[in-house]
Amino acid sequence: MQHELSIWELILEASLLVQAVMLLLVAMSIVSWAIIFQRRKVIVNTAKDTLKFEDRFWSGVDLARLYKEISAKGGNLLGIERIFHGGFREFARLRGNPNADSATVLAGAQRSMRVAHSREMEKLETHLGWLATIGSISPYIGLFGTVWGIMNAFTSLGSVQQATLAMVAPDIAEALIATALGLFAAIPAVVAYNRFSYRVELLDNAYMNFMEEFSGILQRQSMNATGAVEQEHPARRNVE
């Protein structure tokens, strides 16, 4: 009775090139799962912080007070908090300049928010490109190992006069393991990449909507502040 080889025995008896392909695919799978767990933690925490901040922002709290609360966190600002902090800081700085009109003040705040938004998006998208790369090339690397293994299996048949399926079955089986490992590395990476890209897009939309709404609030405050100054000037001239 012929001994049935286990998967582990098939891997050990594979050619060096096929073993190298399998080792590469296992390493890519480990890297993929490490990125998946790390990115999931970052994106989930950022989404929670965004909802928490928006609830606080729209609760009617004074913006200057909210700015002080955010500033107290120091360098631990994330996502929408950093966008608000950058925009309001620039708004307060420019509004204190008597030579800056409302358009200049608003443009400066919007520019600061865009810079903060760009940096936060870069943080959210970190390593997502690796998931896309692993998901796209892993099947082809596994297929290469499979083709090489099957080619060696059929090449070995040239040295025998009567070939049987039992002679090439182990070689074909070990070659197909490379394809399986390629799919094992690719499928989670593709699923995670699509899911994380969708979540990042939702956060991006939330950031953009907040920037537009916050810009409207700053514009009204800037115009009110300008109007107050304009009302003071005639009074001073009357006194003179």
Automatic annotation (TrEMBL):
GO cellular component terms, A-Z: plasma membrane
Keyword line: Cell cycle, Cell division, Cell inner membrane, Cell membrane, Membrane, Transmembrane, Transmembrane helix
The protein's assembly and partners: The Tol-Pal system is composed of five core proteins: the inner membrane proteins TolA, TolQ and TolR, the periplasmic protein TolB and the outer membrane protein Pal. They form a network linking the inner and outer membranes and the peptidoglycan layer.
Transmembrane residue ranges: 16-36, 128-151, 171-193
Family: Belongs to the ExbB/TolQ family.
Described function: Part of the Tol-Pal system, which plays a role in outer membrane invagination during cell division and is important for maintaining outer membrane integrity.
Claim: Membrane is one of the keywords in the record: yes
Membrane topology, from the record: Multi-pass membrane protein
Source organism of this protein record: Aliidiomarina maris
The organism's place on the tree of life at top rank: Bacteria
Keyword rRNA-binding belongs to the record: no
Localisation: Cell inner membrane; Cell membrane
Biological process according to GO: bacteriocin transport; cell division; protein import
Protein name, as recorded: Tol-Pal system protein TolQ
Residues in MotA/TolQ/ExbB proton channel domain copies: 81-203
